[in-house]
Amino acid sequence: MEDNLIALISKKMPSFSKGQKRIALFITEHYDEAAFMTALRLGQTVGISESTVVRFATALGFDGYPQLQKAMQGLIRSRLTTLQRVEVSRARLRDDEVLDDVMSYDMTNIRKTLEEIPRDVFYSAVDALVNARRIYLFGAGSCRALASFAAYYFKLFFNDVQLITTSGQSEIFEEMIQVDERDVVIGISFPRYSSRAVKTLRFAASKKAKVIAVTDSLTSPIAPFASHLLLAHSDMASVVDSLAAPLSVLNALIVAVSLKQLESRRQVLTELEALWNSYEVYQPADEDGKE
Question: Which three-class secondary structure string do you get for the chain?
Answer without folding.
Answer: CCCCHHHHHHHHHHHCCHHHHHHHHHHHHHHHHHCCCCHHHHHHHHCCCHHHHHHHHHHCCCCCHHHHHHHHHHHHHHHCCHHHHHHHHHHHCCHHHHHHHHHHHHHHHHHHHHHHCCHHHHHHHHHHHHCCCCEEEEECCCHHHHHHHHHHHHHHHCCCEEECCCCCHHHHHHHCCCCCCCCEEEEECCCCCCHHHHHHHHHHHHCCCEEEEEECCCCCCCHHHCCEEEECCCCCCCCCCCCHHHHHHHHHHHHHHHHHHHHHHHHHHHHHHHHHHHCCCCCCHHHCCCC
